[in-house]
Design brief:
Layout: E1 7-9, H1 14-21, E2 28-31, H2 37-42, E3 50-53, E4 63-65, E5 69-73, H3 78-82, H4 93-99, H5 104-109, H6 112-118, H7 124-132, E6 135-140, E7 143-148, H8 149-152, E8 153-155, E9 158-159, E10 166-173, E11 180-186, E12 196-203, E13 208-214, H9 221-226, E14 245-248, H10 253-274, E15 278-280, E16 283-285
Parallel strand pairs: 1-3, 2-3
Antiparallel strand pairs: 4-5, 5-10, 6-7, 6-10, 8-9, 11-12, 12-13, 13-14, 15-16
Helix pairs in contact: 4-7
Length: 328
């Protein structure tokens, strides 16, 4: 399918973009990399009257490194972060995660601001940026406001973006040299959206330790974390199963190691549900685990998949059963 007819505007300043999207007389959608909006337009899931292209705004492509943080413009692409065109102040966390987002063609055009505003629970930036304690800066007719990344996503495909507001930049704090981080995600194959994500950051010099579980719409995260009382985690009451679950807790090395193990078990439990045998056409198969280095943990597949053959009718020729192995 093709999108419906719409008007197109490419402003060169943030104020001009705000004026366009604040117009209540027509429906406007903002576009950056168009990696999510483009398919939605073609499928006519969205039918705007106006497309506002933000890629012509120089301010949204700006990068500013400060002593304690770095300011990343909303139109900075995943590839910019992966290729270190954006200075890395997170001990390799952001470039590593950027390398595992979709495919290179998507990373060349997809933007960090577009991913956060699209608010897909399976996206990578929500989880890792919530773990490092990043914030987003929004600008609208009433001025600027700053909120935490985990608060910006208020539901599946729903961001806390008020009418007329534009996401201007992302502020990422600098991690100290003693900081450690971990990031795990499960997906059926590299490039697909994750079914479960776990991220953990501990920074002893700053007294910060945070754990995040994202991309999980099957389990109630608050209850699953409360059941393991040994971690001492108490998520905020506003956390839901569709938004990244960011939890701060007293920082100790032993407790940090325990949290990593708990998160890994939660991620594995979600993946075990999603990789349950699928029965189709009389044969039972099991999805394979992606071998991307970020897609962890790896699940060992059995030597042979079980095969179910339906009973053959009388006087019918029975064909031999073909047993598929993981290598075939």
């Amino acid at each position: 399918m093709k999108p419906v007819d719409f008007d197109y505007a490419r402003p060169d300043t943030v104020d001009a973009a705000i004026k366009l999207v604040a117009d209540d007389s027509r429906t406007a959608k903002m576009m950056a990399g168009s990696q999510s909006l483009g398919p939605m337009l073609n499928l006519r899931l969205v039918q705007p009257d106006l497309i506002v292209d933000l890629t012509g705004i120089e301010e949204l492509r700006r990068i500013e490194e400060r002593t304690d943080q770095i300011l990343i413009g909303a139109c900075i692409t995943h590839a910019d972060i992966e290729d270190l065109r954006v200075p890395d102040i997170t001990q390799g966390a952001l470039p590593t995660v950027a390398n595992g987002i979709a495919y290179r063609a998507v990373r060349n055009r997809g933007t960090i601001g577009g991913s956060l505003t699209h608010a897909d629970p399976s996206a990578d930036w929500h989880s890792i940026l919530a773990a490092v304690g990043a914030q987003v800066v929004l600008r609208g007719p009433n001025g600027e406001r700053k909120i935490a990344v985990e608060a910006y996503m208020i539901g599946a495909l729903e961001a806390d973006l008020q009418p007329g507001e534009v996401l201007v930049r992302v502020e990422v704090p600098r991690l100290s040299k003693s900081a450690r981080w971990g990031y795990y995600k499960n997906c059926r194959k590299p490039g697909e959206f994750a079914h479960a994500i776990g991220a953990f950051v501990t920074d002893p010099d700053r007294g910060v330790s945070r754990a995040v579980i994202g991309a999980d719409a099957l389990l109630d995260l608050r209850e699953s974390l409360r059941l393991d009382c040994r971690t001492g985690l108490r998520p905020e009451e506003s956390v839901t199963s569709f938004t990244p679950c960011a939890v701060s807790f007293p920082m100790t090395i032993r407790r940090g190691e325990r949290v990593v193990k708990v998160m890994r078990s939660k991620v594995r439990s979600v993946f075990s549900l999603l990789s349950a045998p699928i029965v189709a056409s009389g044969m039972t198969t099991r999805p394979r685990t992606a071998r991307h280095p970020i897609c962890q943990p790896k699940v060992q597949a059995p030597d042979r998949y079980p095969v179910h053959v339906p009973a053959a009718p009388k006087n019918a020729t029975v064909k031999p059963v073909i047993r598929l192995s993981p290598k075939e």
